[in-house]
Amino acid sequence: MFYEDENAFNKEYMDLLPEITEETRNMLVSFSHNDCQENNIMVKWDDNETCGNLRDIVLIDFENSKLNYRGIDLAGYIIESTIDY
Predict the structure, then answer these.
(1) pLDDT tens digits, residue range 8-53?
(2) What pTM does this model have?
(3) What is the tens place of the pLDDT at every residue in 65-84?
(4) Which letter, b or e, does each residue of 12-46 get, where b requires 16 or more Cβ atoms within 10 Å of its Cβ?
(5) Residue 43 forms beta bridges with which residues?
């Protein structure tokens, strides 16, 4: 869900994860997907253009989501991209 109101997002975030305190909010910890690999990323393109412009990127499959260090999803995606299945 996309929030244009940052305060509304922060309130819902804090309500969903009561273990986050004001102290942990300022640390390098954030809510993470923890399974950012190609099968969990959906990309929507504009059909009106010949080239196709990127419209949305949506992450799915949040069963492994929890608090983790910021950047862990990017690092996990880079590692997954280098594996030759």
Answers:
(1) 877 777 776 656 666 666 667 778 899 988 899 888 887 765 566 7
(2) 0.55
(3) 888 888 899 999 999 889 88
(4) eeeeeeeebeeeeeeeeebbbbebbeeebeeeeee
(5) 57
